[in-house]
Specification:
By secondary structure, the protein is an alpha+beta fold. Helices cover about 30% and strands about 30% of the residues. Helix 2 packs across helix 3.
């Protein structure tokens, strides 16, 4: 799908209050049960930092196809507490801890994950943020490298009993 077709079909924007339940449900569909955050945690993120919670809304189907979210902080290393506590969000924080990028299975392969990430990077760079930091399983490292991230190696995160790699995308130095 071309970028023009993608932008005609999908609207990438901040999550709306009435969409928090639907956005929270995406996590449970897209991640294995041991890795997915609880709906209450997702709702808390959407309330605490709606400017850091973007969705891709399918204009034709009238539903969310994907989302990307995070919390701002002054911290420079990822820790599991960010998944659980939206109260760690610091609006003026220089770094964003990325907590989830999801695209429903029926929308994968269209470039929607890349479009969400590019819009997220654009917005956070314009806000003067220093970097985006995330964790991913080994099979996703190359995907995030193609999106401008570099690997920091194995993360201290043990979320869901998995081995994670910490990735960083420098926006402003």
């Amino acid at each position: 799908m071309t970028d023009k077709n993608l932008s005609a079909r999908f609207e990438i924007r901040e999550v709306r209050p009435e969409e928090t339940e639907e956005a929270a449900g995406l996590e449970g569909i897209c991640f294995p049960a041991n890795e997915a955050c609880a709906p209450a945690q997702m709702r808390a993120r959407a309330v605490a930092a709606p400017e850091l919670f973007l969705v891709a809304a399918d204009r034709e189907a009238g539903r969310l196809a994907g989302s990307i979210n995070g919390l701002a902080t002054e911290e420079a290393a990822f820790r599991d507490a960010f998944f659980e506590d939206a109260g760690l969000h610091r609006p003026e924080g220089k770094n964003i801890m990325m907590l989830g990028l999801v695209v429903l299975p029926e929308y994968r392969g269209l470039g929607l994950a890349r479009a969400l990430m590019e819009e997220y990077q654009r917005r956070q760079k314009a806000r003067g943020r220093a970097s985006l930091i995330l964790t991913c399983v080994e099979s996703k490292v190359k995907m995030y490298e193609r999106m401008g991230f570099h690997s920091r190696g194995i993360s201290a995160s043990t979320w869901g009993g998995e081995q994670w790699y910490e990735m960083e995308c420098v926006l402003n130095s």
